[in-house]
Write a structure and sequence with these properties.
Number of helices: 0
Protein name: Pentapeptide repeat-containing protein
Radius of gyration: 12 Å
Strand order of the largest sheet: 1-5-9
Oligomer: single chain
Organism: Streptomyces atrovirens
Number of domains: 1
């Protein structure tokens, strides 16, 4: 699935509870601003979810708030990484 270069602005998009396994989902160079994008309770269990070079606000639930490592296959812009990862 390809969301590369998409703009998420002023909208509400929910990937809550989604399962990302196998395959590739690209959000490369997507812009997240002024909207509400949520990955709460999403499962990353294989494949690749690419957010490299995405800009704007980190989507809700995407980065573990408890200091847990990022799931394998989840590629984020360096600015979005929790400190220490």
């Amino acid at each position: 699935m390809d969301f590369a270069n998409a703009g998420f602005s002023g909208c509400r998009v929910l990937f809550d509870g989604a399962v990302f396994s196998d395959g590739r989902v690209s959000f490369t160079r997507a812009a997240f601003s002024g909207g509400w994008v949520s990955f709460t309770d999403a499962t990353f269990s294989g494949g690749q979810v690419e957010l490299d070079a995405a800009t704007g606000t980190v989507p809700i639930g995407l980065v573990p708030g408890d200091g847990s490592p990022l799931p394998t296959g989840l590629n984020l812009p360096e600015a979005w990484y929790p400190s220490g990862q």
